[in-house]
Structures are given as structure tokens and as C-alpha cells.
Amino acid sequence: MYFGAHVSIAGGLVNAPKNSADLGGEVFQIFTRSPRGGHVNPITKPIADEFKFLCKEYNQKEWVVHTPYFINFASANPKIKHGSSAVVREELERASQIGASYVMTHLGSYKDLGESIGFVQLIDGLEQTLKGYKGSAQFLIEISAGAVGNIGSTFDELAKMVHHPKLKKYNIGICYDTQHAFSAGYDIRNPKVLEQTLKKFDDTVGLDKLKMFHCNDSKIELGGHKDRHDHIGEGLIGKAGFEAMINNKKLKDINYYLETEHDKVVEDLNILKELRG
Q1: Exposed, middle or buried by CB within 10 Å (0-12, 13-18, 19+), for 58?
Q2: 236-262, pLDDT tens digit by residue?
Q3: How far apart are CA 103 and CA 99, in angstroms?
Q4: CB under 8 Å to 217, separation ≥6 — which residues?
């Protein structure tokens, strides 16, 4: 079980391992491109080799890639729909070049098409993304906070995707964002409710699909359906919730990635390390 944070690639991808180490991170998450679009720098072999060398040099145990923000597999705009598939596939290929373990993405919103038509388009888009992919980075779906129309905020919905007849052969995993899931109604604030939530997850999605945590406390109450991160112990999940997770044997091999504001991210990391002991 290792802890880290989302770090900047300002000045070049190869700066990320040091940026993580400077915070005290053992693992890290990055965007390989601007999350808002625009020019994409190619990852050449020398860049990839240097990146992997520096990950080893700075004793980083794992690194993962987050897709850009503009992904929406259920958009009525053909450009966004096809672009989402193309960009996620590109990110899987780029992540494989640099030895990243996972690429996780938000899937978008059903607000354009409605859930029934949107879901069919979503499945087709994900199949298009993963068809023929032979890279090493595993594709993960990130649970959403449950705002109206957002895709993937319930365990049942996640299960319908990862176990779909068209998709199950692609071994899709889940990125569990603690704040999003709490906001979607899944409690983790003490060992007892955490066990209940893990049982629900296992009964629907399967605990073997749970690959990483986005580790964020919540400014929003349980079931509040908004995406609002807080620092560890300062939000409504509370330090006890993260202690319950870290001490749960079912979760002992899963790594944690903070997405909290950088003003206190070092403090957040230190809290997690203290809880780990």
C-alpha cells in the first residue's frame, strides 16, 4: 500500500517523478497532456526511457495517467463522441510507453441523449476505444459523484459496463474516488459501514476490479451528489474513514492517490503515512 498525489508535468513529462518525490510521494498520477485540450507533445523513446529511469531513481513504486476533462462518450456531438474514444485510446498507448499501470477516465454525461440511448452509445464507444489495444496500461472507469446525468455513480451501473458482453473481455477496472463515492451515497466513515460498502461493491462489480483509490475527503455530505474534494480529516468523511480503509485487509494492496489542493498535500500525505504506521 503506497501513497502519492497528482503532480504537475510543467516543463516536461520527465519532471513528474521528482515532483512526486519532493512531496513525499511513493506513487503519482499525471496528465500526459493539457487536461483542457490543445497541442499534444509526442512521447519519444528517449523521453519515455528518461521518464522510467527517473521513476526508479526517485523510488516511485507506481504511476498512473488521468485522461483530459473533456471526455464524454454519451455526447450528441459526433466530434466529441469520436474524439473521446480516440483520446482515451491515445492515452492508453502513451501510458504504456511510460510504464504507467493504469489510465482512468470520467465517462461524461447522459444529459444530451438520455440514459437508454446514451448507454448504448457509451458501450459502443468504449468497445471502439479498446478494440485491438495491446498495451500494458489497464483501462479504469472512475466512479462519479452522482450529479444529474453523470455516468457511473452507482455500483450497479459500473457493473453493467465492466461485465457487459461487449466489454468483459477487456478487463476493465475501477478507480474508486473516496469523495465521489461518498457523495454518491456510499459510506466509509467507520469499519462497519466500510465493510457494508465493500460487500455491495463485491456483490455487484467484484473487489478484483478495484485497482486504485483517488483519496479525497469530502466537503459534501453523504449522498450530496457534488464533486467537492477536501483535505484528509477536514471533510465529512473524516480521518476515521481513511483509517478504516487503510486497516482493512481486503484493501491492503491498493495504492492511494491524493487529488487535494497542493497547499496541504504534504500534510495529507503525512496523515496517510501515520495511519499506515
Answers
A1: middle
A2: 999 999 999 999 999 999 999 999 998
A3: 11
A4: 178, 179, 229, 230, 231, 232, 233, 234, 235, 236, 237, 238, 242, 260
Question: Closest by alpha carbon to 117, among 71, 164, 81, 76?
Answer: 76
State how far the Cα of 188 lies from the Cα of 194, in Å rounded to an integer.
Answer: 4
pLDDT tens, position by position, 121-179: 999 999 999 999 999 999 999 999 999 999 999 999 999 999 999 999 999 999 999 99
Residue ranges per domain, the chain? 3-276
| Burial environment of residue 63 by CB neighbours within 10 A (0 to 12, 13 to 18, 19 or more) | buried
User: Which of these, 65, 74, 133, 122, lies nearest to 99 by C-alpha position?
Assistant: 65
Query: Does the pLDDT at position 114 exceed 90?
Result: yes
Q: How high is the pLDDT of residue 38?
A: 83
Architecture of the domain defined by 3-276: Alpha-Beta Barrel (3.20)
pLDDT of 39 reads 87
CA atoms within 13 A on the CB side of 200: 16
pTM over 0.85: yes
Inform me whether the pLDDT recorded for 37 exceeds 90.
no
Contact between 254 and 213 under an 8 Å Cβ cutoff? The reply is yes
Residue 150 CA to residue 68 CA, distance in Å, equals 16
